[in-house]
Amino acid sequence: MSATTTSEVTTSVSLTAAPSSGKMRLDGQPTNYGDFRDDLNRDGYVVIKGAVPRERADAYSDAFYSYLEGFGLGYDRKDSSTVRRANLPVLNEKGMILAYAVTHEKWVWDIRGEPGVVEAFEKVYDDKDLLVSFDVVNVGFANREDLPENKPWPHQDQDPAKAGFRCLQGLVNLNPCGPNDGGLIVCRGGHILSEQFHKDMADEPRIPAWTPEWFGFTERGMQWLKDHGLEWVKVCADPGDLILWDSRLPHYNVPTQTQQDRFAVYTCFMPVADATQEDLIRKKDAFERRLGTTHWPNAKHVAGTNVATRDGKECSKSRHRPVQEPVLNERTYRLTGIPYIKSEA
Ligand SMILES: [Fe+2]
C-alpha cells in the first residue's frame, strides 16, 4: 500500500494509475490497466469475448443439450413441445440444475479449465494459485410453458455487513445471447454505491434469505438505485464469452423473449490464500462426494445432497455421480484446492 501511494504521489497520476501488480482494484476509481479490468472496475461487470474458442463453445453447448436429452425423460432439442417439466431434470425457477452431480460432469470441468477462463481470473487476482467453485449450471428455455415463472429477483451475492470487494463471479455463455434473449441483467455501477446504499437503507426490512451472503432488493431499494442514476443493462454475449461481475453488483437473470435457449455455466475463482485449511478440507470432501457449492470457491456452502426432489418425491433419475466423471489435468486438479491441503505429519 505504501509503495503504491509513493508511486502515485511521485507520478502525479494518483487517481488513474493502476498498481502494476497485485490483486486488481475494484473501487470504481479510474484505472489504466489497458484491458478488461478497467471496464470491470468502472461498471462492476465485463464481457470477455472469446474466452472459450467458438468451436469448443459450440461443442460444450452440444454436450449440454446431450446431457439434458440423456436423462431419457423425453426432452428432444429438435422438438420444442418437449420443453416440459416431466421431460427434463428438475430445474428451479431460475433455470438452475442443482442436483445430479451436474457440477462435476466432465464437460462442466472442461469449461472451468478453459485457459481463457482461468487466465482472466489469474489476471484479476495476479495469482496463479486459485480455487474454482463447484457452482451450478443454468438453462433458460424458450417455450417453458409449464415450468415455474422466472420472476425478477434483483440481488447481491454477498453479505452487506461485510463491505468492499470480496468475490468475483463469472459465467461462460454457450448460446447466442442478444438483447431479447434470456440471460444476465445487471445494475451498471451498482458495486460502487453498495456501501452508501446499505447505510441509507439500513432500516429497510430484509427479504428473507437462506444465507446472509445474499441480499435482495425491495421496491424501495430498486427506487433508491434509480434515484441515484443507476441503470439496468441486459448483458449480451456470444457463445464462448465469459461474463464477470462483482458480487456487490445488483443482478438477476431474465427469461428469453425469443426462441433461443440460454445455457450458462457459472465459474467463480478466488485465491487459495483467501481460504483456510478447514475450507480446503471441506472442499475436498465436496469434490470427492461430487457435491456442488454456491459461487464461493472456498466451499462456504456445500449442497447436502445430489438427490433431486420432484413433486415431493425423489426424482426417478436421481444420481450421485456424474454421467461422465471429470478428467482433471494438473491445472484443474489444483483448482480443487486439494494439493494445497497441508499434511498433518
Ligand atoms: Fe446471483
Automatic annotation (TrEMBL):
Output the Gene3D superfamilies linked to this UniProt entry.
q2cbj1_9rhob like domain
Put simply, this protein is called Phytanoyl-CoA dioxygenase
Organism lineage string: Eukaryota, Fungi, Dikarya, Ascomycota, Pezizomycotina
